[in-house]
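ARCHIVE CARD
Drawer: 12
Card no.: 0347
Subject: one protein chain, sequence and derived structure
Cross-reference: see card 0346
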Amino acid sequence: MEQSLDQFEEAFEREQRVEEQRRVELRRRAANRSRARHIVKTEKRGRVRFGVLALCLTATVVVVVVVMFETLAWLVGG
């Protein structure tokens, strides 16, 4: 009886260690998934911001060129 109780306790402790390792692994995998989602989100946001910046710069160049030539035409023709 004493031996079976010792065996039961050893098996229980072994199972506890296995469960703890499983929990640690699950926590680590969840943290990795969260980190990966954050990286993807940051990259996506960066691409959108770069697109908006390029669009604003292009619009600024177009407006400046149009105003410059309109002013030049007004000065020369005027």
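Annotation on reverse: The longest helix spans residues 2-77. The helical segments are 2-77.
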